[in-house]
Amino acid sequence: MARPRKIDRDQLLDAAEELVREKGAAALTIDALAKACGITKGGVQYSFRSKDDILNAMFDRWYVDYDRQFSALVGDPPAAGKRVAAHVAATRQGDAALNAKAASLMAALLQTPEHLESTRQWYRERLAGVDATTPEGRRQRLAFLATEGAFLLRFMRFMQIDDDEWDQIFADIATLLEGNVG
């Protein structure tokens, strides 16, 4: 009897993210993931019972990766003003793989509205403590929104933003956060 092949959950998640990124969230099925990985549907279901389990694992993995980078930038305990600056820096510095994961998750949100509440909570946490009644708070909120807009435009491929332009955009956002906008 042949020894069962070991199934690597991270490889399955990598393939799932690739499917979503290349073909859209609707293309992510257990069958499609099995074919992409060269295993049986039962092999996928050994690790994930359903498409929802795959999506949950994709979100969980991204949150861990992002939170590690964010925490290193924001410090402990996080100050309100540093939270937005850390988010801006984490988004700017995010490597292509992390940003591609985030973009694929955003695409998956369109197909899986049940994940919207956790995403809303995540966004609320990023802006926690920002006082939008002050000029500094309004700059922080605007910098956050500009960061998210630039990210979505680039990684959802709505605009072609090369690395130089990306750096220029984030230099402008940093200037906004510093309050040096004329």
UniProtKB/TrEMBL annotation:
SUPFAM superfamilies: Bacterial luciferase-like, Homeodomain-like. InterPro entries: Homeodomain-like_sf (IPR009057), HTH_TetR (IPR001647), Luciferase-like_sf (IPR036661), TetR_CgmR_C (IPR041479). The keyword Manganese does not apply. Keywords: DNA-binding, Transcription, Transcription regulation. Residues 29-48 bind DNA. Residues 6-66 form the HTH tetR-type domain. This is TetR/AcrR family transcriptional regulator. It comes from Paracoccus amoyensis.
